[in-house]
Amino acid sequence: MPELPEVETVRRGLEPAMVGARFVAVEQRRPDLRFPFPARFPARLVGARVEGLSRRAKYLVADLSSGESLIMHLGMTGRFTVAAPGAGGAMLGEFHHEAGGLPAHDHVVFSFDTGARITYNDVRRFGYMDLVPTAGLATCRHFATLGLEPLGNALSGEVLADLFARRIAPLKAALLDQRLIAGLGNIYVCEALFRARLHPEAPAGSIATKTGRPRASAHRLAQTIRAVLEEAVAAGGSTLRDFAHADGSLGYFQHAFQVYDREGEPCVTPGCGHVVRRIVQSGRSTFFCEGCQRR
After folding, report:
1. Which of 128, 129, 173, 218 has its CA 20 to 30 A from that of 57?
2. Continuous segment of H or E residues that includes residue 281
3. Nearest by Cα to 217 from 277, 171, 259, 174
4. Average pLDDT over the chain, rounded to whole?
């Protein structure tokens, strides 16, 4: 599933084609994706202008002049193709290895008054779209329980300590809890924990004192989370497949992986001497170095 950097990359690619443009036609080619489309989906979009395009966790949000917001989730295999007048299409999305992005999997086509055309393709149909009142966006069913955004200054050692204090759940599990921090996924949590030299099975509360104050490890973790995400956004994400930027060039943050998917390989830390291990936590692979990441 695409993680925050992949979704942010898609947002940046869609923004020039969508913001300020007005829907002139919407072709909905099936009644549902992961969930049914909202009632009168095309009719509620046609005529509306896109006022802004943002990201909340792993969701894309287009605020419309109609007073509604279009919420889009890529699921596991969702992707967008942007075709501008007189130019070829640029693929923006994830996992187009299955069926090669065949037209049979083009489920929604947005046409704009600028001549731009955006097609949503989804092989497995785990993505979905919804329309909700913009005024109630923060409390809608998609966002009401989401935690804070991990990019930017909102995430700090103090905030992590406050969130994790007295929690006995493994540190990795707490970081993946979308009710606490929204948008983090398996890849970037593994990488951040390695850079912060924290063991993924350590109790989440271990980064805080008994009084709830942040330890040095809490500050390190907050800094590494932001750094890893920012580097991944700049690189265009880590799809482990053919992920494309808006200009069509491929971005592979996985070339910078220090532990993820490197089981059995030597640790990159000079003088460490250990190899990367893989364990399974809550059904997900965790990669770490037991020499650098001690409990």
Report:
1. 218
2. strand 277-281
3. 171
4. 89
* 58 part of the active site: yes
4-139: CATH number: 3.20.190.10
pLDDT in tens, 41-74: 999 999 999 999 999 999 999 999 999 999 999 9
Q: 237: which residues sit within 8 A by CB, 6+ positions away?
A: 2, 3, 5, 6, 9, 94, 243, 251, 253
Q: Which of 207, 224, 225, 228 is nearest to 216 (CA)?
A: 207
- Phi, psi dihedral angles at 207 (to 5 degrees): -85, 0
- Give the class (CATH, top level) of 157-288: mainly alpha
Chain center to CA of 214:
27
8 is catalytic: no
Q: Is 262 a catalytic residue?
A: no
Q: Taking Cα atoms as reference points, which of 229, 210, 89, 231 lies closest to residue 161?
A: 210
Is residue 29 flagged as an active site residue?
A: no
User: pTM for the whole thing?
Assistant: 0.87
In this prediction, what percent of the chain has a pLDDT beyond 70? 88
Phi, psi for 279 (deg, rounded to 5): -125, 170
Q: In this structure, what DSSP letter does residue 182 have?
A: S
Q: What is the pLDDT of residues 215-233, one digit of tens each?
A: 999 999 999 999 999 988 8
Residue spans per domain, the chain: 4-139, 157-288
